[in-house]
Design brief:
By secondary structure, this protein is an alpha/beta fold. It has a single domain, classed as 3-Layer(aba) Sandwich (Rossmann fold), CATH 3.40.50. Helices cover about 35% and strands about 20% of the residues. The strands form 2 sheets. Strands 3-2-1-4-7-8-9-10 form an 8-stranded mixed beta sheet, with helices on both faces. A two-stranded antiparallel sheet has the order 5-6. α1 links the parallel β1 and β2. The radius of gyration is 16 Å and the shape is globular. The relative contact order is 0.17. The C terminus is likely disordered.
């Protein structure tokens, strides 16, 4: 039996208070364990199913340069002196692109801002996306930075995450009522 260890953290960029909270959580997790933080950004916004990048190659290249610049300006200040950071453009808004990044070991835990209860990611309800994804996923928000939702794999490794003083709940895809847990109860309560 192998033991799962978090070796890098993935974060999907989102310009919102919840995205900022999720970034702060991802960065604190990376700092605490001296892990690499990979910031993923998309030409086709996975949070907005109606948004689509231009199909014209020249317009797409221009948009890519603009988004890369915006991303780096936005997050460079927030990173402070932390240098173990990578930025990666994802070509598709679907889970397949993130799954490829997972297969390349660019992250073991994925952190997403959770803007509101009706939010979508990759064209599906965000909680459905999180619970169906194969790796640990942490949703941050929508009401506060301390409001966390963990998919089943994340709940199993919650003892490796910086959850001290935060309340979190496990996602339940079957419609079962969610349970709230403090870090004191830890992974044992969820396993």
């Amino acid at each position: 039996m192998s033991t799962f260890r978090i070796q890098s953290v993935g974060f999907c960029a989102h310009y919102s208070p919840q995205g900022d909270w999720a970034f702060a959580f991802a960065l604190s997790l990376a700092r605490a364990h001296r892990l690499r933080l990979n910031v993923f950004h998309f030409l086709d916004d996975p949070y907005d199913p109606a948004a689509a990048a231009p199909s014209n190659p020249r317009e797409r290249a221009t948009l890519l340069i603009e988004r890369e610049r915006q991303l780096r300006l936005y997050y460079d200040d927030r990173l402070g002196d932390y240098l173990e950071v990578g930025f990666r453009l994802c070509q598709e808004r679907s889970w397949k692109e993130l799954h490829r990044c997972l297969a390349r070991r660019e992250f073991q835990v994925l952190v997403l801002g959770f803007p509101d209860a009706k939010a979508t990611f990759g064209g599906v309800a965000m909680e459905t996306f999180a619970e169906s994804f194969v790796s640990p996923v942490v949703l941050v928000g929508p009401s506060s930075a301390d409001e966390l939702r963990l998919n089943s794999p994340a709940a199993l490794v919650s003892d490796q995450m910086e959850l001290s003083g935060r309340r979190y709940r496990a996602l339940h895809p079957s419609g079962a009522p969610p349970s709230s847990t403090s870090c004191a109860a830890g992974a044992a309560a969820i396993r």
